[in-house]
Amino acid sequence: DDCWLNSTYDLKCTHKTGKNGLHVTGISMKSINVEEKRKVSSMKGLLTVLSLSISVLVMAGCGSDNGGGSSTKSEVMSVLKQGGYALEQRDSQAMAYYTDKMLNTKYGLNCTLNDLYVGYIDQARWMELLVFKSVGDADSYVAALKTENEAGKLVHQDGTSVVVTFSQETIDLFK
After folding, report:
1. pLDDT tens-digit profile of 143-162?
2. Cα–Cα distance measured from residue 35 to residue 83, given in angstroms and rounded to the nearest whole number
């Protein structure tokens, strides 16, 4: 007598009483290995389903407001250009200086900029467009500006994009 597996991998064993009255059960290592493989395979399947579910949730959470907000940035830039602004993109050195001196040191933040633009209309009206790495960074900066409460400074936030200006006409472009 020995053990066998049926089609659903249930381990079946037969028992026999030996001459000395001891019970003997036959179990083969192959049967145990098949059972262990099924357990491992089931766990892999469960982990795969779980990983895919998490991936879908993470990807669903990623939108224009995360990872640099490229479509939000494009939309904000489009509104500003339609409003007559000529936008000048700052280089990486200017962005690093601005991040260090004007964001993190001045306001005690730990923010990361992905992009920085300055815009003008006839050199009379100006604005800054700051594109942060995350919405949380943008939120922190806007909160710091509101706390600062500099007279006349106006702010518009759209996801990771923040427009800073002293022009109500500029802010009204986004209404």
Report:
1. 999 888 778 889 999 999 99
2. 69
